[in-house]
């Protein structure tokens, strides 16, 4: 009886691992093909029978990407937009989280619930009023329109509050007794302590800004201001289909996200776990 149960458990484990591996395979295959296609000439992309790997390593797609398109400009726009959004959102989220976690004021719980309730609203609900505001401010085709509307993030406030609830209040009181200002406490105590959750917010905000498509599509119509999310699709039009160059650009566009996650993955996991267990 015990032996049969052990065999059944092992069989279920093997089946579960096989299903997981199949899921990983389905997830990774498009990305691997994107890399492979970026090293194929245009005529080889449509060959029959289908070949996953290129016959020869062709770097012409990358040469055309950097030499005949505005890829460098688009990459710079995306970098500036993503870093600007991330820095502003992390600082504002952490400041708000510090207030909700360590200060008592009227309607604190109600305000926090309203803040969390905004997470249920799809982005499409606020696009029209935001767009009207950008027109009123004269910010169309500017970095202001790309960065400022998303400088505050409710999910960041939630994660930061959950993490800072675990910080001993006695530590902050001791700093106040020693004459530290609230601004000094925030920068010298809260910010260093909150590095794990800060890393989590940075990865979430940077990746969301990097791949944002809908909002830049509304407020940017100048090719020189395009981020990568708009610039790369512009390579495919009714008269030009540069899929090889598009694959090369897509691969280059994924590298910043991969590098940032690999550098900050340990703190990212710590921040997620801390936010999950602290209430």
How would you characterize the overall build of this protein?
With about 280 residues, the chain is mostly helical. The protein has a single domain (about 65-275), classed as Orthogonal Bundle (MetI-like fold), CATH 1.10.3720.10. Helices cover about 70% and strands about 0% of the residues. The chain has helices at about 1-35, 60-70, 70-100, 110-115, 125-135, 145, 155-165, 170-175, 180-195, 195-210, 215-220, 230, 245-275. Helix 1 packs across helix 13 (about 245-275). It is globular and about 75 Å long.
Q: In terms of topology, how is this protein built?
A:
Blueprint: H1 2-37, H2 60-68, H3 71-102, H4 108-117, H5 123-137, H6 143-147, H7 154-164, H8 169-177, H9 182-193, H10 195-210, H11 214-219, H12 228-231, H13 243-277
What's the order of the H and E elements? HHHHHHHHHHHHH
Runs in which pLDDT lies below 50 for 5 or more consecutive residues are 275-279
The CATH class designation is Mainly Alpha
Strand content: under 5%
Structural class: mainly alpha
Number of structural units classed as domains: 1
Largest β sheet strand count, sense and barrel closure = none
As a whole number of angstroms, the C-alpha radius of gyration is 24 Å
The total of beta strands comes to 0
CATH-defined superfamily = MetI-like
Rounded average pLDDT: 85
Helical coverage, percent range:
over 70%
The CATH architecture category equals Orthogonal Bundle
CATH topology: MetI-like fold
Distance between the termini: 44 Å
Task: Identify the overall geometry.
Answer: globular
């Amino acid at each position: 009886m015990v032996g049969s149960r052990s065999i059944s458990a092992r069989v279920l484990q093997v089946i579960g691992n096989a299903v997981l591996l199949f899921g990983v395979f389905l997830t990774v295959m498009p990305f691997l093909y994107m890399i492979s296609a970026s090293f194929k000439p245009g005529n080889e992309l449509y060959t029959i029978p289908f070949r996953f790997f290129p016959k020869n390593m062709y770097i012409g797609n990358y040469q055309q990407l950097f030499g005949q398109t505005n890829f460098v400009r688009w990459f710079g726009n995306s970098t500036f937009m993503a870093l600007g959004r991330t820095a502003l959102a992390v600082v504002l989220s952490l400041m708000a989280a510090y207030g909700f976690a360590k200060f008592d004021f009227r309607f604190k719980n109600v305000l926090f619930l309203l803040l969390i309730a905004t997470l249920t609203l799809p982005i499409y609900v606020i696009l029209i009023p935001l767009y009207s505001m950008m027109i009123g401010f004269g910010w169309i085709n500017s970095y202001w329109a790309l960065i400022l509307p998303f400088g505050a993030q409710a999910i960041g406030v939630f994660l930061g509050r959950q993490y800072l609830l675990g910080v001993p209040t006695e530590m902050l009181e001791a700093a106040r007794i020693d004459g530290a200002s609230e601004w000094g406490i925030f920068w010298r105590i809260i910010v260093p302590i909150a590095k794990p959750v800060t890393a989590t917010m940075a990865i979430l905000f940077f990746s969301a800004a990097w791949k944002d498509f809908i909002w830049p599509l509304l407020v940017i119509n100048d090719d020189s201001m395009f981020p990568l999310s708009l610039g790369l699709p512009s390579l495919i039009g009714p008269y030009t289909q540069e899929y090889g160059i598009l694959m090369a650009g897509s691969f280059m566009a994924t590298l910043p996200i991969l590098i940032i996650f690999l550098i900050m993955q340990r703190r990212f996991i710590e921040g997620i776990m801390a936010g999950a267990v602290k209430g």
